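2024-03-11 09:14:02 INFO receiving multi-entity request
2024-03-11 09:14:02 INFO entity count = two
2024-03-11 09:14:03 INFO echoing inputs for audit
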Amino acid sequence: EIVLTQSPGTLSLSPGERATLSCRASQSLTSNYLAWYQQKPGQAPRLLIYGASSRATGIPDRFSGSGSGTDFTLTISRLEPEDFAVYYCQHYGSSPDDFGQGTKLEIK
Amino acid sequence: EVQLVESGGGLVQPGRSLRLSCVASGFIFDDYAMHWVRQGPGKGLEWVSGISWNSGSIGYADSVKGRFTISRDNAKNSLYLQMNSLRAEDMALYYCAKASGHILKYYYMDVWGKGTTVTVSS
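2024-03-11 09:21:47 INFO inference complete, emitting structure
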């Protein structure tokens, strides 16, 4: 079973700043089957990125994903107030579909 | 509009059973695999179970294997989760999620419902 470790646990930044979130896998991921989801309080998760770097429909281009193998990154180039939320990575190349423990992005 | 609506949650005593339902609309239900994902109070996301488009492939998290049963009725555009022998640690918000493809592997979850809450308490 693949374990995904996200860091940091909490990231405190201000609007307008750049956010860099990390997701590290315990073993190399098949064909970069890595997704990122955003979850705001009281809401369901929303797909942001799939295939490690492809943006989902309707996702602003300030969100970008990168990485391969065991190390993946979600970057938000310039934070908007609505971006402060919890972010999860997920590996979907095998069953079970493992999620990371999440990174909380909070306003500084 | 693509939509998933869960129902069936509620308060149940430890050891009892509950059946969750998820009704899908806005897409061809039997073209896609489906999943249940849960989130305990103040916790992260945990994949619970998944089922392929034709029910030919099914998977469970170790934490629910042998107690939970996933099923689907493509004629009714519905997904189900039969939960038996419920424990306190099963208490969570349960989300229904659509896969982006027809099988369990290699497809991410592109549409999520709002969830239904399961409370396990005596």
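2024-03-11 09:21:48 INFO post-check: The mean pLDDT of chain A is 95.
2024-03-11 09:21:48 INFO post-check: Residues 35 and 58 of chain A are 15 Å apart (CA to CA).
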